[in-house]
Each structure stands twice: as structure tokens, then as C-alpha cells.
């Protein structure tokens, strides 16, 4: 193959030299893709005469065409182009990859369909898209790329940084290669397409929990010579935002000031500050946060090969992903292996044999970084006091907080122990496909999939010695240190656990496809079963004579051994019938009906609860195919109206067996009788034999519009989803005297979700510069229509009518400016407010503020109303650039927190010296003083008295709106002429980044807008810079 | 076309058959409720659950009643060291400084919801027993007796806080239900106890030792009937206890609350491996562990409540000086129950000589209000010895297993003494007081009556039953708590000894440990119906005090 430019030049020369002819000319040219690679097998058709040819192996074609003819160039996965001959003899064409192509094939439920004939709301992106950003978890690559999909990533911890995804405001079902499976740890290099079925008419075919579906399809081989791809990338990661906490001297200054505001004498003297800066006498000046959060690395390698003959096709892939966190010892690595094989094993009989596996290793110090776990490493980093050195007398320094001491550096080191999680996941799909010889279009398919996961977790906690710093109690005092063991327990503890789960899915179907004149018919009947079994056990031992022999056998404290074990099982089955009918490719109809059963509901003894029928239908009208439309001579390639309605059924989140009256053993012994502990048995929650599926009715209407040969594409959908019979816990609607004697769950909840989404695309080529641009957005409003509210409470305390996920709290009226104002206001009984504290609205007017009576749903949900993205990719002479801006609007973030089992409280971000720890600079700098009455934040205070400001209120809500440059990639393709001699097909080098820029109100506090709901320190989102190469042989 | 349809039908037929069976699964972590009443072992497990409720209202459980705090924190005898709310932190301080914190929304003394859940479980058990039991009459009676004792125990918890409450004895629950009168509530408690007393044995076999006995029922009844002000019933019940001839006071006071002895009538046992508690960690002295302990401490007021061994009182004026004195308080002269109850400066504890002073290492002093949590230090100069397990020295590794003695014979003496006093039988009452004082060799007046007799009973309950969860509730039922100090709990502060210096040259300063006045609101004699009830019960009437 000659270099492209050379080839084009020769062709042009040839055409110029060749003879002119009239009427029917020979038109020649080369067809290449956007990267300049020649495309063999492109169909070139004269639109008028329907005569056509294909491009050769080198992408060349030659065809007879008249001056006024139009040539149609089409290729799978590319935007079809129509070009007028207009007397030209040379027409070189660059086909754009794109989803607006009229021939684009889209993965839908149990099959594929041409995009133009789809009647539901379906979006698809190609796997290649995902490779335009640094790879972490696939879930993080979806944000901003697909309309209707919102993704929120709340952690940056290696191996735990998956984003939570909502499709049109609700959780979606995930399907990988036809089987319900998680996709978060798939190697992005293996993904062919990600398809999102957003409305019921598209999703209902998947039954169980499929109110919307995200379908991942992995790559397969094609009938072509072997192709080997090798990619490697390496990157570094840092926190997107670095908190600015007080340094030693700042701490001394503001701490004294806060004591002064509380009416106490200062603690720190000038001499103390001098010693901090000089590092004398046990003083120091440490930025624990920066010491803890450094720079991490990501390395990603993948080699894959694909190809095949007419008998056998293959795609095999091996990937290795290694993430070293920017906190020491927080590591994750993953090996992905995949082999997808398609073979014709007999006449009319083909076999798909897919096997994939991965090995995941997660490693961290024994302290987690889970924000809901007290004392997590990130929390220690934000709480540690800054005026000490990191070490004292050869031991690490710990600083006190209100509860336990913190020492972030030793807690994140392996001296404190470790936690290792290893899992092995094996996934297999075996399918047989049979084409019935006696009836054209009739096929049968039987697929069985067996997934096996085993996981081992081992956690070793080693108590270690630290020097605990003691604050001076007055300016005359000095810092002192006490040697102490941390955590306080004297014994090393080892917990080891193993769990295993297997999933067996069978999927049997008959399909009939045929065309009768202008009638196109496709029928599908399918039966599916799913069997999930799991078991787990764990053991804990204490006391190890030799710490390096960290095995349970060597635990010495036999009286402290703990063992546990459990098992579970789940069974589901479903039947599906589907009819697709189209007339003349103009009028499109799809009708589906699915019948599903699940073990979660009562079956034999009561009817109509376990099994559910979910029908759906949708219609499409390709107006652009109508004669009268064509006569309008609009520059419209495709205009299709779509509409659908369907029912889906959900159980998600519902625990099992709430239809059975059962008793269970209590987790701990209840008493000691005759010197031995005895167990107790308790009734479980009252059985609701009528418990059944939640249902949703979904309506969708939209249109697809393609104009000017791909210059403009527009998809627009409006949707309304009515969810009813949602199983909810109903305790809130019963008085205490019922003693909990009510159903665990009852089908009482109702919600509606409504909104719209759009996708606007534009692709063009100007001279050598080709580019594409996609703008997408989704607006979703979620509302409770019915919630089991307490009857005798005011409306503002009822969820019915409120936004789903709305933040709860007081309405604040600013800060008290004087004692007089406090005396004349309703106040909380729990603490005496002072000037500079937050004033609240007495909503029930009873003269006192109580959390139970005066709060309400006053904030928005953390999930955005609007999400969107702007994608751009451009290419110029081997250089390419692509970037994605992603944004979320209409969301609130509360800086206070709700703690499990504790309730509302301040966090570090709302209260100075909260929990006797360090404080962010912004909070003290903008705090109230009599001289600064218009301050943004309440008065400085150490902690006395009361906790007036601790309550959740709109005072602490901040807009969580953000726009961020989610990813950017710049690449260069080394010219083929350079590579050809060394036998390389393609070589691309690139640099890329993730979370490069963020615009949000929260960044001025150095808080990432995607922070979790409760933040007292968590593993922050990461900014990644990476570079890589891709080689093709 | 027909062929296809036939094929599809045939295909669906194959898969439809047996699919419902495929889906039927059995839980692996629980059993069906029908099995309970066919197997006595299973029913016994079911019944065992209720025993844990004794712990839940006791002094060791955390959290339990009053969020796991000692109600003595609401009296002059005990001071919590933390300035912020929280279990074994500053909850008690929050309430004594700010009794408005007791209300229908927030009320740490509230046990309404949890207690109704427990009552419901017992009623569920009884309804099952009455309708489904396949056991013989004797077995059924034993089950019913245990369950009904616990039901009375639970209704007592509600009645002593509220008076009349919603009464359920079956499973016919209705959302809108009014409360019954106090009389009806006490009637139900009395009836359940009377049944239990006849149903339960005087003694269980060795394997079942720890279950409720006849003696426990009567002993508890003597307590409950004091709250009901049914003096005769209280006296009669106490008499029944003595009639059993099974119990006697232990020789030493310090053994009386440790359980497993002649004095213990109703107790709940623990094991290190569970069920257990962490009372020792919470109230540990400084130096026993890092960063924990010292949650609360006995006050100077409590110390001064003790008589000398000869029955006279110490004149404490010399130590009521903020400037301090080097004179050592006469701790050793106080009666023996003091040494058994309180860890004071210079005493021995776990083999160490205590130094509850500013720079102490075995015990240390902290000025209240200067730290959020005391972390092992005392804010009064004292630590609690009673209820603690002196033998447990590794509190960071091991949980506590000190037995909870919910009722012991000394209380029954004092219950009867009070009943007799109310029944106007002063000399009989004094005999019971004397029985208690004799053990610790304290002299008893030969004749007392009227207020003097009542004062003697009060004093004896305060000292003998200290930190066992009585004082605060006694002061409420006597309707004394709203009086000004020292009669009641309004407008006072508790004090302690700030001890500085080193052994041999200590200075004792009298310090105000509260720094603000403690209050008691009269209306809190009756705790309000919580809003969690009112929000969904449209028929119940709030108590007049709270309307």
C-alpha cells in the first residue's frame, strides 16, 4: 500500500491525463476513513441507476456514471455520503465514522437493528469513543457522552472509583453480551458498542428491573486478515482539588481568635509560632493533607488480535491495568482476558464461544478511605493538626481529635496493617445458532452463560506506636508528647473472608425474519432463566507472636476468635415475544410482551404477585420517505417521528422473602443461662404476601433528523415515566405503639419522572480538516407522587409532591447580629445561640425551633436536573484532537452531613475546629465577628456551647452545578510511508487528560462538586495526565 | 406461517412447565413461623429473646434507656465529663442545664417506641402460644409466666415515665388508639405479675439458672407498686419474697451488687465473649487505657452524703474553699459503703494508688468545660468504683462481663420500709432500714416516724442503692425533683475536688463542676407522648402537662 498522499497524487495525475468523454464517464477515486486509512469494501452506487461497485483492497473504485448522477458511498459504521458527479472524473471521498449514518446498526434488546428503523429511544456509542479518555472505570467514561445518562463519580480511590449511573433519573439494568452483568471493570479496549435503551418500548424486552438498559457488546472477529493492536498508556494522577487547610501559624492565630470569641484566653503565643516555623521543641508546620495526597500513576496495556475466515472468526484480548493511588499503598490492578470465537461447525449451525475473565487485586492500608467509615485515611488527613512535625523521637506523630487520635501518614502505611482484596471472575457465553433450512429467515438460538466469581479478602490490623501531641493549655505551656499505641487495641487482628457466587443464565429463542414485498416482518420468541447462588464465610483472629506470619493459624487469642458464614440464592425466569413490522421502510411498528417471575414474591399460594406481564409498543414514521416529502426538496436525509408506550417492572433494592413470615436468630446471644450464652429467635418483619413488583408506565415521543449529508443530525425525545406500586418501607406512616408490626415493604410509592433529551451533531470536512461536534443534554425532573408520610405532619415535612432526593433541613434567615435579636427569635432548645450563629425560620410558629417540626425539604437533590456534554473531535493531516466538556446543573450539595445512625451534624467544612481538628482556611477567613457582620460563615468557635449551627439547613447548601473538561486527547498518526517498511500498519501517539478544568461554585472552597453527600474527608476525584501509543500490525 | 406459530407454541410449552418451581427458593438464614410451636427448643429460643430486655433498661447496656447514660447524671450524685451530647458523653449535662430538651420531639428519657416494639413481640409470642402451641399445659404455663413478667416489666418502664399509656395485650393493633388511665395501666402490670408469680418456679434447674423466678416477680412487684402508690400491694409482694426464705444479704456490701449470691434476686449475666458490655471502658480511670474512660464521676455532694462509721456526719466546711486546703478529706472515716462505691485520691484500685490530681498518671483531674471529652480524666476528683470490675485490667481488648443485679434483697427491704411508712407502720419500717444498715455496722435510730423516718429511708436508698438507677426516678415519684436544692433538683450545681500537687503535698480545692445552674421542669414529671406516636395516631390525647 502506497502512502495515501502519494496515491491520491498519482490518481489525480492519472485522471488528468486520461481522455475526456461525454455523458457516461468513468469516475474513479479513493475512499478513506477519517484517519486516512483506505477503506476496502465500500459500496459505491449510482443513486439513479442503482448500479454499483465496491472499493478494492486499496480503497480504490472505478464506476461509470453520468454528469448528473449522484454517487452514494456507504460503509458499515460510517456516514453515508452522496456526491454529485458534475463532470468530475476524480472523486476522493473521506467517510466519517458516525452514528448519524442512515446505515448505522444499533444494538437493541436481543439483537441489532438499523438505526433508521428503530422506534424506541436508543442511543449508542462506539467503543472507540471510550478510548478518547484515560481509562479508569468504564462507568466514568459515560458521563456527558450519551443523552439521557447521568453519571456521578464520588470517589477517586483506585478500584473503587466507579460512577453511579442514572438513566433518565433511575437506575438502569446492565447487560453485557446478552447477560445481566456489571460492566464497570471491563477493559475499554474490548468494548465494541455501548447501547442505552432509554424508554420502555426499547427496554421492556429485558424484563426484570429493565426500566432502562445499558448494553455493552464486546468486540468480535470479522472475515479479514489478522490484525493485531497494541496499546500502552501511562499517566499520573492528582486530586482535582487540594483543600486549603490552616497551616501551623494560621492555626495558632485562628484558634486563639476562636477562643477569644468564646470568652477564653489564648493558647498559642508568638513564641509557639516562632517554634513552629523553626521546628523547635516538638513544634512544626506540617501540611498533612499534601503529605497524604501525592501523585498516583495509571498504567494501561492491551494487546488484542482479531480476524477470521468464513468458518471461524476470533477476537482475543489481554489487558493489564495498574493503578497506584495518590495515597500511598492504595493500589488496584486488573488483568482482563477475553476470547470471543464464532465458528461454523456444521451446515446452518454456528457456535459462539466467548470466555472472559479478570483478576482484580485491590490493596490498601488497613484504614479505609470510605467516607462513611469514621477515621478513614482521608478523614485523618483533613483532621490532623498542623503545628507538629511528622515524626518525633523517631516515631510518627499523631494528633488528638475529639474522639480518637489521627496519624494519616502511618495510617496509610503498611506499618498499620493492610487490606487485600483479590477476586477472580470468569464469564462464559456459549451459544448455538441454527438456521432452519426449510424456512428462510427462521433461526433458533440457545445460549447458556455461566459466571463464576470468587473473592478473598484479608485484613490485618497492627497496632503501632506513635507520639501523641498534646496541645498546650495556655500560652505559658508547651507542646508535649505521649507515647501511645494506636489504634488502642493491644492485639494485632486478622480477618480473612472468602465469598463465591455463580450465575447461570439460559436463553433460548426462535427468530423469524422475512420480507414479503414491501412488508418486513421479524418475530422473536424467547425464554430465559437465571439462577444465582452465593456463599461466604469469614474468620477473625487476634494476637500474633510474629507479625510476618500473618495467618489465622497463628492467632494466639483463642477466646477472641470470630467466625461467620452465610449463603444466598436467587431465581428468575422470563418469556418474551416480539414483533417488528415495517411497511416500505416508512411505517414502523414494534410490539413486545414479556412475562417475568422472581423468587422475591409469593408464588404458589397467591396469584398475580410473582409473575408480571409487561407489554410495550412503539411506532415510527419515516416522513422523509414519503413521496410528497421528497418533492419538497428539503436537504433532509432522514426524518423520522417515533412514539412508544410500555410497561416495565422493577424489584431493585428489595430484600428477599418479605412475603414470608419467618423468624431469625439474633446476631448475638441474648442472655447467659447456667453460665452459657443462649441465642434468641425473633420474628422478622411482618410478611406482606401481596408484595409485588413496582411498575412503571413510560411514554416516549421523539424524532430523528439528518440533514445535509451528516452536516446536521438532531435527535430529540420527550418522556414521561409514571412509577407506581413502588415497594417502600412504611414505618413512617405508623405510630410507635404499633411496635413495628407492619409490613416490611408495601407497594405504596408513586413517582413520576419527566423530561426531555436531545443530541445535536455536526460533522464536516474543510480542506484537510475534518471534525465532528456533538452536543447532548438531558433534563429530568423526578417527583414523589405518593410517599407513606405521617398523616399528622405539616405538608412541608411530607415527601409527597417533593423532588426525589431533595435535601432536608431548616430554612435559614442569616446570622444573628445581636443578643436582642436572639431574645426575640425562636431558638433551638438544644443550645443557646450567640450573635454570629445561624438563625432559623420557625415554620410551625410554635416559638421554638425543633428539628422535627421546622425542617422541610428545602434543597434540591444531589442528582442534577440537567446533564449534558459537548464532544468535539477534529483531525488534520494525521493530527487529531478530541475533548469532552461535561456538565450538571440543578443540583445542591450540602456541606453538612448526615451520619449513619447519628443524624445531622456539622462537618469539617461547616464548623471551625470541628471535632477538635484542623479547619479549612475559607471557613475562618470569612467567619462572623462583630466587625464583620456580613460574613458568609458563622462566628468562630471552638465548640461550646450547643450545636445551633450543626443542623442541615439551606445555609449550608451550595449549588452543585458544574462544568468540567472531562477529557482531552491529542494524537498523531505517524505517516504510513514511514511505518510501512518496518511492517507496522498504524502507529499513533497521544497525550490525554481527565478532569482537567472544573467550573463550579464549590471550587472556590477547593471542594470537588462531585463530592459525596457526607464528607469529612474522602478519597477525592482525580485529575489524570497520560500519554500513550497505539500500534497496529 | 402456521409452522412458525406451532414451533413457538411448542417451544413456550417446554419452558413454561416447571418454571414456577424453578423460582421457588427457601431462605437460608431464617425459619418459617409455623415451626416454632412444634418444637420446644425453638420456642425456648423465641422466649429467650425477652430476657435481653432486662439488660436494655439496666445500667450496663449502651445504648439503652437514657441513651446508655446513668440517670444519676440527672441528680446531684454524678457528673458527666463531656460538654457535648452523646451516649456516655454529655447527654445528662445537656438536660440538667437545659431541661427544655425534654419534649415530644427530642427526649433522651423516652423509651416509647422501643418498648412498644418489645411489648408487641411478647404479645405476638403469647398469641402464638395461645393459638398454636402443641406443648403440654405445664410447658405453656412456664412460657406464659416468663412472657407476662417481661410484659409487666416493659409496661412498668412506660408507666414510670408517663403514667397511663396505650395498652395492648393482643395483636389487634389499630393506628388510632387512645391511652388508658394510669390505674388501668398499673392494673395490667399487677395482673401480669400476679400470673407470673404463680406460674414461675422458685428455682430453675442449673441449665436454666438466670431465668425469672417467683422471687424475682415478687421483688419486682414490690418496686413497681411503689411507683403505683399501691402501698399494700408493695408490702405484700415484699413479704412474699421474704417468705420464700431463699435470699439473704451478703456479708459484705461490695459483694451485694456483683450477682450470683444470696442477695441477688433478678440478674442478667454477661460473658466476655458476649453478651457483654463496655461499662468498664466508659468509666475507666485515667491510665487504664488511652483516650477513653472517665465518662462520669461521683460528685462531692455524693461523698458528703455518706455518714461516718459511727453514724454521724462529717463537717465539710473546711474543704468548701475555692482557695484550697492541704488538709486531706477524711475519706477513711466514712462508712464502708463509701470505699466500696467511690475511687478517691489515695485509695487503691487495681493494685495502684490513685492520684486523681491535675498531673496524675493513675487517675487525673480535668476541669469541666475545658475539653470536649474527658478521655479518662475525672472532673470531680473521684471515679466510680461500684459497678466496675476491678479484675478487668485490659479494657481495650476485653469487654466487661460484670453481672447486672437488677433487683437485690436490700432494695426489697427498703421497698417494704417505704410501703410500711406509707401504711403508717413506722416501727416495722425502721426494722427494714435497720436490716440494711446492720450489714455495714451502722447504728440505726431506735425510733423514727413521719418526715424523719422518710428522710432515713431516702438516705438509705440513696446510699445503699447508689448508681443502680433508682435515685432520679425515686425523686420523681416522690414529686421532690422540682423543689429547690437540697430538697429537689432545681437551682444547684454539683461540686468536686480539684486536687493538685503530688503525693504528700496535695491541695484540695472545692470546685464548681457545672459552671451553670441545674434545673428541673415540673412538667417533666410526666414525659410527653412522642410526636412519632402523635404523627400517625389521631386518637391519642397528649398529657395535660404537654398540651
* Count of DSSP strands of chain A: 58
Please give the share of residues in helix of chain B: 25-40%
Helix and strand composition category of chain B = mainly alpha
What can be said about the biggest beta sheet of chain A?
22 strands, antiparallel, barrel
Approximately how much beta-strand content do the residues of chain A carry?
A: over 45%
Distance between the termini of chain A: 14 Å
Protein described:
The complex is a heterodimer of chains A (1033) and B (547). With 1033 residues, chain A is mainly beta. In chain A, the strands form 15 sheets. Chain A has a 22-stranded antiparallel beta barrel. Chain B has 547 residues and is mainly alpha-helical. In chain B, helix 7 packs parallel to helix 9 and helix 10 (231-243) packs antiparallel against helix 15 (409-422). In chain B, strands 2-4 form a two-stranded antiparallel sheet. A two-stranded antiparallel sheet of chain B has the order 3-9. Chain B has helices spanning 2-16, 19-23, 40-48, 52-56, 91-97, 112-132, 137-162, 182-199, 214-227, 231-243, 253-256, 279-282, 300-305, 336-341, 409-422, 426-439, 450-464, 471-477, 531-534, and strands at 31-32, 78-80, 264-268, 296-298, 342-343, 348-349, 352-353, 383-384, 404-408, 495-500, 507-512. The chains are: A mainly beta (1033), B mainly alpha (547). Chains A and B meet through strand 27, strand 28, strand 29, strand 30 and strand 34 of A and helix 1, helix 2, strand 1, helix 3 and helix 6 of B.
Write the SSE topology.
The complex is a heterodimer of chains A (1033) and B (547).
Chain A: H1 4-17, E1 25-33, E2 43-46, E3 52-54, E4 60-65, E5 70-74, E6 81-84, E7 93-95, E8 105-108, E9 111-114, E10 122-126, H2 127-130, E11 149-152, E12 164-167, E13 173-176, E14 179-180, E15 191-197, H3 200-203, E16 213-218, E17 227-239, H4 248-261, H5 270-278, H6 288-292, E18 296-308, E19 312-324, E20 331-346, E21 349-365, H7 377-383, E22 391-392, E23 395-398, H8 408-411, E24 417-435, E25 442-461, E26 464-470, E27 480-486, E28 493-516, E29 519-542, E30 562-583, E31 587-598, E32 611-622, H9 627-631, E33 636-650, E34 662-665, E35 671-673, E36 676-678, E37 681-683, E38 694-707, E39 712-728, E40 746-766, E41 769-786, E42 808-809, E43 812-815, H10 819-823, E44 827-828, E45 838-840, E46 848-849, H11 851-854, E47 856-857, E48 866-876, E49 879-889, E50 892-894, E51 897-899, E52 903-905, H12 921-925, E53 927-928, E54 937-939, E55 957-959, E56 962-973, H13 976-979, E57 986-1000, E58 1022-1032
Parallel strand pairs in A: 1-7, 13-16, 23-26, 44-46, 53-54
Antiparallel strand pairs in A: 1-4, 2-3, 2-5, 5-6, 8-9, 10-15, 11-12, 13-14, 15-16, 17-18, 17-58, 18-19, 19-20, 20-21, 21-24, 22-23, 24-25, 25-28, 26-27, 28-29, 29-30, 30-31, 31-32, 32-33, 33-38, 34-37, 35-36, 38-39, 39-40, 40-41, 41-48, 42-47, 43-45, 48-49, 49-56, 50-55, 51-52, 56-57, 57-58
Chain B: H1 2-16, H2 19-23, E1 31-32, H3 40-48, H4 52-56, E2 78-80, H5 91-97, H6 112-132, H7 137-162, H8 182-199, H9 214-227, H10 231-243, H11 253-256, E3 264-268, H12 279-282, E4 296-298, H13 300-305, H14 336-341, E5 342-343, E6 348-349, E7 352-353, E8 383-384, E9 404-408, H15 409-422, H16 426-439, H17 450-464, H18 471-477, E10 495-500, E11 507-512, H19 531-534
Helix pairs in contact in B: 6-7, 7-8, 7-9, 8-9, 9-10, 9-15, 10-15, 15-16, 15-17, 16-17
